[in-house]
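Late entry, written up from scratch paper. The run itself happened at the end of the previous shift, but nothing got recorded in the book at the time, so transcribing now.
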Amino acid sequence: ANGCFNGDQLDIEKIVNHVNRSNPTEPLRLEYVMMEPATSGSLTFSEGVWVIRVNKSQNIRRQRFTIAHELGHYMMHRNKSESFTDEVFFRTEKKDLIEYRANEFASQLLMPEERVRRAISDGFRNLGELSERFNVSSAAMKVRVQELGYKLKQNE
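Output as recorded:
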């Protein structure tokens, strides 16, 4: 954890800064920029620097997941391409697996299994309360809770 959590909320910007400091040969920078509404973010390599760009017009919870997703690309896929854009319409089967892995990385980073399980055992069973506790979207929390094997009530 190294001081990167405030309660159960991960300070994703602090993680990006830590990754940047720990890998000086492939620097990483985070930028908040205006993007098309259908684009959440991107990771590109330019002039010796990897840049995570996040759509600043989107909800903060979406931005946090996007940062973690693009960080996943940086950690796992930067040797495969110099550019990743979170565009839904132009995915190939091969790219879908890469996107799935980046989503999985983001989910596990922002909602660690042991913290989610502890929150649920402590009585947080409403998706809205859990998503607020971890500062992620309800949709992201729903997927994570289901991945961990929990059953949801029909109205959630």
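Residues 60-77 form the longest helix (18 residues).
(Scratch paper discarded after transcription.)
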